[in-house]
Structure to design on (187 residues):
């Protein structure tokens, strides 16, 4: 009898925990809760537009997001120490080579040192790709502005400067489906 009561209590507790999780997921328990900061920033971008920013490229020139209006822009947050970022880089380069005049990548690095950043870009021969612009966000201000929480994280912006899509995690940027997506954006 004791085992049956203990079993019933365990089932009751597990069932209650499941219900609370389900109720929270379905939105029934929302009083006093707040979405993550990144979600709030994304919602704001969808309403008010993508925030403009200026950072220096590796040549020391100021690069401003709004200067690329009229082109499809990918703002990619990454770091040389980020293994998924390393995995993603070759497909980004192949995508940019497919659309050298229509698509621009603003690669915003979260590296700790400029030396790590420069070494990484040399290894991938990024300087050979004219529409691949590398910038260092040493104080993480631009990442904060976008609400970036994970690396890699990318924001695809259309020719009118509107957010089209946010990609969190690794993407195969030159897959047939991705290439078709960018062809549609370029039209």
């Amino acid at each position: 009898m004791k085992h049956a009561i203990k079993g019933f209590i365990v089932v009751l507790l597990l069932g209650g925990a499941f219900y609370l999780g389900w109720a929270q997921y379905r939105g029934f328990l929302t009083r006093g809760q707040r979405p993550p900061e990144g979600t709030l920033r994304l919602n704001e971008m969808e309403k008010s537009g993508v925030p403009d920013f200026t950072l220096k490229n590796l040549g020391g020139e100021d690069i401003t997001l709004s200067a690329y209006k009229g082109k499809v822009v990918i703002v990619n947050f990454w770091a040389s120490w980020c293994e998924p970022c390393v995995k993603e880089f070759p497909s980004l380069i192949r995508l940019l080579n497919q659309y050298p005049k229509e698509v621009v990548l603003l690669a915003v690095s979260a590296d700790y040192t400029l030396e790590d950043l420069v070494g990484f870009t040399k290894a991938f021969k990024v300087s050979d790709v004219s529409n691949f612009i590398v910038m260092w966000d040493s104080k993480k201000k631009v990442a904060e502005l976008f609400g970036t929480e994970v690396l890699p994280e990318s924001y695809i912006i259309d020719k009118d400067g509107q957010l089209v899509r946010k990609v969190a995690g690794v993407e195969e940027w030159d897959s047939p489906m991705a290439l078709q997506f960018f062809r549609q954006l370029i039209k």
